[in-house]
Each structure stands twice: as C-alpha cells, then as structure tokens.
Amino acid sequence: MSAAACAGEGTLWQVDPAFSALVQRLLKGVLYRSADESMWASLLRRREELARYVGVLGLTLHVSEEHGFSLLHPIEAYSTPDVHDAYRWVPHATISFSITLLLVQLRKRLAQLDVEGSEERLVFEHAELAELVTPWMVGESIEPPNIDACIDATAALGFLRPLPGDRARPRYEVMRILEAWVGLGWLTALDQRLGEAGGRGAASSTVR
Fold this sequence. Notes:
208 residues; alpha+beta; Arc Repressor Mutant, subunit A; 2 domains; three-stranded antiparallel sheet; 8 helices; 20% strand; disordered N terminus; disordered C terminus
C-alpha cells in the first residue's frame, strides 16, 4: 500500500502505514518477536525513528533484542503530578500488595539467574509461586482462591506465561518483560519498605 497524502493548515505530509502500525501496536502493549517476526524486523530497522517519535509523546522506547520484546515507558520527567498526560498513552494498572510481593520475588529470581550466567528459562509450579508469597502474608488471608487470583492476575499482566501440560500441576514461565518494568533500583527501595513495614500494610503499586 502506498503512503497516503494528507493536508492540514496548508501543509502536505505523507502517512506511512507501516510506521503507523508499529506505533499503534506498541501503544497497545508489549510487542514480542515470536508473535510477529515481520513487525519485529520493521521495529529494529526503524528503531531510532520510533524512539524520536514516541519521545514527542513523552514516552521512551525499550527494546530487548536478547529476549525478543519491545515496549513503551513514560519518560520519568513526565511522572510529576502536574505533567501526567503521557501516562494515558500506554496501558497501566494498579496492583495489589500480594501481586507486588510476587513480582518482587520473581524479579529477584531473574536477577539471581543472570548473576549465575544461566540461559535457562525461569519456570515455577503453581505451588512454588504460592510459597514465594505466603511467608509475607502473616496475618493476611492466604486462602487458595486468593493465591490463585494473585497468580492469574500476574499472568494477565504478562509477567507469567502458563505452560501447556498437566492441569493438576500447572507450570508458569517468568517473562523477561518483568526486568523492564521492575528495575533493580525500584526493587531495592521496595525491599527496604517491606522491611520497615514488617511485610504488612504496604501500599499497592502501579504497573505502567
């Protein structure tokens, strides 16, 4: 399809359908190489152009060629209370204390895997994920349905991928996009907060 000419205020510019498709796809969420090889190749070719364009929107482009994913983040300067419109460009969700705890534990395991230099995928059984959260939930309700909801919500956010297999013993792969959302600096700060709170009563967090 050829680019279409558009006019406005006496100015003529060209619409690039392929570039527009890239921007729209990234605004909707994470782009995985495995999901669309053609679009991924286009992203790599036009990476600098994309970064400049989304920068005007108050966003920064994150690309992990090693792990095959790309996403958009709000630029830190736009996170102040008086400049917040950039946050509306990309999906975000407020997450509960239990999900925050699970994300912290999963991010730690990924960091440990990297230190060990292992290229293996990080995979947990359902019961193992529950064990990561349970010790912190002293005094909280930890009935199985709540743990199930926590794991399901984490998977819905894209940080866990259910693996095919025995439904009686479900297994999940920890997705590397967690590294892009949860930096080590944030992890250290939250660890300190959890220590001060004794693992209870911490505020919910926001994933953007």
